[in-house]
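lol ok so funny story. i was supposed to be doing the assay writeup but got distracted and ended up predicting the structure for this chain instead. priorities right. anyway since i did it might as well share w the group, maybe its usefull for someone
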Amino acid sequence: MTDPFALFDEWLAEARLSEPNDPEAMAVATVDSDGRPSSRMVLLKGQGPDGFVFYTNQQSRKGEELAGNPNAALLFHWKSLRRQIRIEGKVAPVEAAEADAYFATRSRDSQLGAWASDQSRPLASRAEFEARYEKMRVRFEGGDVPRPPHWSGYRVTPDRIEFWNDRAHRLHERRLFMRDGFSWREGLLYP
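and the output, tada:
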């Protein structure tokens, strides 16, 4: 049987060679307390057998939805390769040390932006956000920018991974991997 994580790594490597913009971009779908779905694009920042990692403001809409329902779906779509990967699973915050290590690799402007933004909250004007950003720039001038306490990462531990290949006449190939305890079952789906 194929290892779904090895196959994911192969497809991502091919996407990095052919996809013109952000091959790590993925849609993250969550649901609110009323069961209304929401999706948005984020960037994959880590992957392996333990799951798929992205970072965000925990007080954002997605952060609040994940706090209420720790399940998510991810979707990678690589138009240049005519492929997509769908992932569904449980979500948990990453350890603080892992979040700190990643935050330290971000550009200073991105770090300051994480402090300045009340992500997903109403904003009266762009000027208000820019003023908040400037306030953070002055606050942390001359020193390192620590990770904000409301900003961290999430790891999606997959239960299902589907690899979709486009084929002529909509006769697509769909390979489904489903977690079965500590191993995976592989099967096919009709297009």
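DSSP finds five helices and nine strands in the chain. The helical segments are 4-18, 61-68, 96-105, 108-116, 126-139.
back to the writeup now i swear
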